[in-house]
Design goal:
The structure holds 2 protein chains of 2 kinds.
Chain A lengths: L1 E10 L2 E11 L4 E5 L6 H9 L6 E6 L2 E2 L5 H7 L1 E3 L12 H12 L6 H15 L14 H14 L4 E5 L7 H18 L2 E6 L2 H7 L2 E6 L2 E6 L1 H6 L1 H8 L11
Parallel strand pairs in A: 3-8, 3-9, 6-7, 7-8
Antiparallel strand pairs in A: 1-2, 1-4, 4-5, 9-10
Helix pairs in contact in A: 3-4, 3-5, 4-5
Chain B lengths: L1 H21 L2 H24 L8 H19 L3 H25 L4 H21 L1 H4 L22 H24 L1 H11 L1 H6 L4 H27 L4 H4 L2 H14 L6 H20 L6 H16 L3 H10 L8 H4 L15
Helix pairs in contact in B: 2-7, 2-10, 2-12, 2-13, 3-4, 3-5, 3-10, 4-10, 7-10, 12-13, 12-15, 13-14
Classes of the chains: A alpha/beta, B mainly alpha.
Chain lengths: 247, 341
């Protein structure tokens, strides 16, 4: 469904993403992992249109989308969340999601329909649909859910979930991971999940891609990633002979 | 609700139509000025309320005032065509300056600086084109007495009616933008452009749209002001001074509420006039000093503006979400973690 080929991004003299190629199959959850600074978020921003690729191509269902502005990529059917939640604080919870339901479909639906869909999505992720509710009292977990709700309200075919679990405790992480699995099942959307925490991700994703220093060093099943020599090396250091433990 | 609104509207109309009959000419003149400036401040606040703080509205005002006046004097073109042309010119100017700003993400202080330069460019151009515009000495339209064709009325009543309609139109446009979902989109953009774009909002288009509306209306206000006072001076309708006047008055009145900019116009103009009359020729400069101090106090102690502060006292606030209490418990099916084992 999504084909990334020879994707590179250069910031001045620094090559953040170097010739990365991978494919995302329809309906799967693909994990994109790697240590800090490995180029995961940059890859994400390139796909979502927040950054323009220096070279390479990104094709969604055969059509080139590399270099399109972010709002057009959203209209093509790619939704994204941000690593650090970025709610619109001046708007209420329902307004936040209504706005993305409305503009995600490029204003093809009325406001009332958008609001209706917003309520459905809020319910799906487990947030209150109370029109009075603001974003002020929300904790880390609820803010992540709002990010997710806002992305889902745009009706994406492909969801880019950026480090959905940072800042959550163990139980919240488990719940969030299950939520992503649940969303795939119920909405039938494809998900790329960026994460640096390996543990929880590994039991939900179908395949995993590991990046290091902007290069792809592994692609395959999660179980294999854990015993791959290069992945272990990147995560645990060279001299470490033991098996990788979830971080 | 709608009944009391209807009554309020009728009372307002009655008061508005009684004013020219009751007020002596000087005060009628003041009211007309307040209405026209209210419209201009409202036009500025259409942008300003979203944090797009423009110090360039003096430029649009100047274009709006000078274009119809010049066309009338040199080509005898009726303001009925000159005013639309001046609006088009202001919109083009706004587009030429706005587009690269929004494209290159010039926001906040930098946007303010670019627009500040814009208003000065228009002022200096007007002064430099002395042969045509009269430079710093100002410019007077050829007077023809009472004429619909020339849009000149020596009797104040006509301009009073025009000013009222203009003001009401400004409020209606504010209302129209405020009610639409576009208002929420702009609110989102003003907070976080990336996040707004990620949910499908065309940030560029939304910003251009509101900028163009704001600039066009400001030009219209400038044109009507020019037709009314029949004397244009670069210092009073273009440049930094008038840009600052617009920004301060609108902010002091309150840019987040419908009537805020109008209250700003009412207070600042009555204050200026009041202080001017009170002090007369004694203590030259005292009036301006007091005006400045009061404005600073206003902005420090009422950051939401006067109307905003009043609303804060009278209206109940929204309750924050009790997120944790309402979170629905989810069935957690714990599979054995296959990771790394």
């Amino acid at each position: 469904m999504l084909a990334v080929e020879g994707l590179s991004k250069r910031f001045g003299g620094f090559l953040a993403v170097n010739q990365v190629s991978f494919e995302v199959r329809a309906g799967e959850i693909l994990g994109l992992i790697g240590p800090n600074g490995s180029g995961k978020s940059t890859t994400f921003n390139l796909i979502a249109g927040n950054l323009r690729p220096s070279s390479g191509s990104i094709r969604l269902e055969g059509a080139e989308i590399g270099g399109l502005p972010a709002h057009m990529i959203c209209h093509r059917g790619i939704g994204r969340t941000f690593q650090i939640p970025r709610p619109f604080r001046k708007l209420s919870l329902v307004e936040n999601v209504t706005l993305s339901a409305y503009y995600g479909e490029a204003g093809r639906f009325s406001r009332a329909e958008a609001e209706h869909r917003a309520r459905e999505v809020l319910e799906l992720v487990g947030l209150p649909c109370d029109p009075q509710a603001t974003t002020l009292g929300l904790g880390a977990s609820a803010l992540k859910k709002l990010e997710l709700a806002r992305a889902l309200a745009t009706k994406p075919k492909l969801l880019l979930a950026d480090e959905s679990l940072g800042g959550l405790d163990r139980a919240e992480m488990e719940r969030a991971a299950d939520l992503l699995g649940d969303i795939r099942k119920r909405l039938g959307i494809t998900i790329i999940w960026v994460e640096h925490i390996m543990g929880v991700l590994m039991r939900v994703v179908d395949r995993v891609i590991v990046l290091d220093h902007g290069e792809k060093i592994f692609e395959g099943e999660p179980a294999h990633a854990a015993i791959d020599a290069r992945v272990t090396e990147v995560y645990l250091g060279k001299s470490h002979g033991e098996r990788a433990q979830p971080v | 609700m709608s009944g009391s609104r209807l009554v309020a509207a009728i009372v307002l109309l009655a008061v508005l139509s009684a004013i020219p009959a009751i007020l002596p000419p000087y005060f009628l003149h003041l009211v007309i000025q307040i209405l026209i400036w209210s419209f201009i401040y409202t036009a500025w606040a259409l942008m300003g309320r979203f944090g797009f703080v423009s110090f360039g509205h003096g430029a649009f005002l100047g274009v709006g005032a000078y274009v119809p006046a010049l066309l009338w004097n040199f080509y005898g073109l009726t303001p009925w065509l000159g005013i639309p042309l001046s609006i088009i010119a202001a919109v083009l100017l706004a587009a030429v300056v706005g587009y690269p700003c929004f494209r290159r993400r010039v926001v906040g202080h930098y946007f303010a600086l670019v627009t500040l330069a814009l208003s000065q460019v228009v002022l200096l151009s007007l002064v430099a084109a002395r042969d045509v515009t009269g430079g710093s000495l100002g410019f007077t339209q050829k007077a023809v007495g009472h004429s619909w064709y020339a849009l000149q009325f020596p009797e104040k009543g006509y301009f009073y009616a025009i000013a009222v309609l203009l003001w009401l139109a400004g409020l209606a446009i504010w209302r129209w933008i405020d009610r639409g979902i576009g208002r929420e989109a702009l609110e989102a953009i003003s907070e976080d452009e990336d996040a707004a774009a990620s949910i499908g909002i065309d940030v560029m288009r939304a910003k251009m749209r509101v900028t163009i509306i704001s600039a066009g209306l400001t030009a219209l206000g400038g044109a009507i002001y020019g037709q009314y006072v029949m004397y244009l001076n670069p210092e009073t309708v273009a440049g930094i001074a008038v840009s600052l006047q617009i920004v301060f008055a609108a902010i002091a009145g309150g840019v987040y509420s419908l009537l805020g900019p109008s209250v700003g116009a009412l207070l600042t103009l009555s204050l200026t006039e009041g202080l001017r009359v009170w002090f007369g020729t004694n203590f030259i400069g005292a009036a301006n000093t007091i005006y400045g101090i009061l404005l600073v106090l206003c902005i420090i102690f009422m950051p939401q503006g006067i109307v905003g502060a009043l609303q804060r006292v009278t209206l109940p606030r929204r309750a924050p979400a009790k997120a944790n209490a309402t979170e629905t418990p989810q069935s957690v099916t714990r599979r054995p973690s296959s990771a790394a084992q």
